[in-house]
Amino acid sequence: MPHASLRRAGFTLIEVLVALAIFAIMAGVAFRGLGAVIDAKERITGENRQWRDIAMALSMIERDLAAAANRPGRSREDLVLPPFAGNALELGRDMSPLQFSRMGEGLAPARRVGYRLQGNTLELLAYPAIDAAPGDEPAAYPLLDGVQRFSTRFLDAAGNWVARWPAAGDAQATKRGEPLPRAVEVRIALAAGGEITRIVALP
User: Fold this and answer.
1) Tens digits of per-residue pLDDT, 73-99?
2) Is residue 19 part of a domain?
């Protein structure tokens, strides 16, 4: 009799196999759920990093535009550069979609700065000074990756948005007292989709 009760208290082979099968199914479901959580976390972390980089790039552009100065510059080819140039074609090797003279800040001297799209990277170009020497090369700082298009527009004194500054056929704008636009519209189209637009008023 004792041996019979011990046999009744144990598990049969089928019961053990069924229990193992249930455990394997539960483990698989849990593993897939954990993988989905990890993937979602990585995706959210990547998106947060991208938006942080976008915010930092826009903050840099806004800070430089807020310090734009009415001070003509000189290129490495000894060309006179307007205080502010956007999408200008006359700047020779110093051409970039957005370039202007900037007042000094703290220990940083007044200098010429520019923004351009190099591949899919938005770069800041920082020149040693407002007037470039023949051998001067700008320092290029990557600001934002994954950019498909970088474009700008400029608000003139009449309240019109123009694609170039100085406006095409308006080389005398500086002499008329309009060396700087009233505002700049910056558009950044992301390779992953979406577009950010920011309008910055100039001093």
Assistant:
1) 988 888 888 899 988 655 545 557 899
2) no
Assess if residue 20 is contained within a domain. no
User: Which residues are within 8 A (CB) of 32 and not within 5 positions of it... i.e. 6 or more apart?
Assistant: none
The whole-model pTM stands at 0.71
Q: 């390779």: which residue's tokens?
A: 191
- Pick from 86, 107, 93: nearest CA to 161: 86
More confident residue, 163 or 89: 163
**Residue 92 in domain:** yes
Domain of residue 64, residue span: 50-201
Specify the CATH number for the domain of residue 83: 3.10.610.10
CA distance 160 to 194: 26
Could you list the beta-strand ranges (E) of 67-194: 73-74, 80-81, 84-86, 98-102, 111-118, 121-126, 139-145, 147-155, 161-162, 183-190
Domain annotation covers residue 118: yes
Give the alpha-carbon dihedral of 131, 135, 136, 142, to 10 degrees: 150
Q: In 3-state terms, what secondary structure has residue 108?
A: strand
What φ, ψ does residue 90 adopt, rounded to 5°? -100, 15
Q: Which of 83, 78, 61, 65 is nearest to 135 (CA)?
A: 78
